[in-house]
Amino acid sequence: MSSKVETSLEISGSRKTQRFLDSARNDKAREATRPFFGALTVYRDLTPHSAAMNMAIDEAVLETAVIPTIRFYRWQSPALSFGYFGKFSDVAIYAAERELVRRWTGGGIVCHGDDLTYSIVIPASDPVFAESSLATYERVHGALCAALSGVGERAVVAGGVDPKGFVVGIQAAVTASGYNCFANPVRADVMMDGRKIAGAAQRRTRRGLLQQGSVQGIIIKTDLARKFAQALSANCSEFEVNEQILQRARELAQQKYGTDSWLKKKVV
Prior knowledge:
This protein is α/β, with parallel strands linked by helices. It is 34% helix and 21% strand. The strands form 2 sheets. The protein has an 8-stranded mixed sheet with strand order 7-8-9-10-6-2-1-11, with helices on both faces. Strands 4-3-5 form a 3-stranded mixed sheet, with helices on one face. The longest helix has 32 residues, at 2-33. Residues 1-14, 16-29 and 161-179 have low confidence and may be disordered.
């Protein structure tokens, strides 16, 4: 009798645990599909810029944005960006074939040219700024997965929950170039067919949060950017950068991102 009772309790407890896990997983899946921002301005920067200018515009937007902003941008020539804490010696060999720039955000090496490059700025005054960096990373990439689904591609967030509610594990590639962002997926990166296709890096200041990201290794559909923005917010409006922001960006490009002292900076 005692044995039967114990078995019954064990099964009942197991069912309760499973129901709790299923409920938590479903809650997370529903959260991932809700728009992240109440309002979002969208800046489609169609003018290709130098690597230094692209980094500078992102910082200038961070200094001035009053509501969340996403900027999609292009590169004047093949480029390579590496994270703030990276070593110039790790990328110097690419200088003959790519324009090099040190990002203000973290992360590793990212090659640019044919990728869909974007930046998101969240002002400190916006409620979303209170979210953790990881939560922001996951929600933005969840919106990107939804946008990819909208153009006929199936992608998932590593270590997160896919649209069917299953937890997605991280399958990191093992290569010699451990510093390459796209060779080593981490939690909340975007995966497709077991490989990383999108990653991002962040910088948080008193003014707000800057997230710079890249989508690559797939055919970029023409309406992916639009669907990405719409997945982030149901209230999108177009944003045009003004001369004041561009002038500030030119200063940052000349005095910071385009200098050898910044490029070869030793960060400890």
